[in-house]
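Might you be able to check the backbone structure tokens below? Thank you kindly.
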Amino acid sequence: MRAAPGLCKLVLAAMLGCALSSASAQGELHLRMSMQLTHDSNLFRLSDDRDIRSLGQESRSDWISSVALGLDADVPISQQRLQLSLQANDVRYRSADSLNYTGSNVNAKWLWRAGKRASGTLGASREEVLSDFADLATVDRNIRVTRKMHGALRFWLMPDWWLVSILDRVEISNERAQRSADHEDQAASMGVEYRTAADNSVVFQVRRTDGVSPNDIEFAGFPFDNDFKQSDVETVVDWRVNGFWRTRARLGYTQRKHDEFSDRDFSGLTGYWSQDWFATGKLAFNVTAKREIGSYQDFTTNYIETTALTFTPTWVYSDKLRFQAGLELRKRDYQGDPNIFLATGTRRNDDITSLSVSALYAPWRNIDFALSLRQQDRNSNVSSFDYNATTLDATLNIGF
């Protein structure tokens, strides 16, 4: 199972070399830089009754500065196209300087075509980020590395109809303190797509996912296997009724079975519904509802069932200035207990409310400035996981 990082590096290196060598001759090559200053009132997402000094930190709040340098290449080669994105990030914390880190993000993609009927993508990526403390029960730094490999095929069957197939591999690894959260997913899907001349589409597909947790949790010397197999049957829709309405939706039936302790298995409806309303040329609204399951490992949880409702209005004041607001109501149920650990804890249920406002000002084509304010509150049936946090971001983006 550990051969994938090396293969991912080989694929990335080959695609990066081809893209960079060709970009200067026949493609587009762009440099970019961004600088961000953030103030977070509750960096470690702690409840009000937690004493920050007892955890070895000086302050609950902090100022965070980050600088990112990036390179983007887009290279057409006959019917083929190579796309590349490189980014280096340096992140510094004024008070909690033990969290300082320098990370990198790499994304390479080959948009391929063979004849008139077959086309698709082949890509790989690697991303390094600091884990969100909302998901950690510690103030220690955890750098999470996500490696992805992706392959897709679209084959023309007849007018408006395509055969589609997708292969994905995702590997998430963490620093030593969070190794129990490492996991690897391999997914394969097959389906048919109906696409109109107006670019509206409906996809009917089946997907199979194999999930592996390479570092089993141990409890009282007992190894706990979190491997699973998941099957999805779903319909995916992207449809514009007219110039004012757009519907994006996925409705499916998900069945997840675990190699051990079948009491943790899940089956039920999953998906999302996202509705856009372009009320005027300057005013738009989006409403999205979803239900999904995601990986999470501790003694009483193997996955999280998430239901959420979001509302996002956008106002384009001018070509240079736009405003956006957001409201999200999210419920997370920590599921998958094998009925042997709950004597040591309580199964969590969290209700999370997020409010945000933002403004984007672009005085010139290659320069923009963004300002955002976000308030988040989490209420949990396990009181130690309650928190509220206010985050203010100021970001400057420059393109060359």
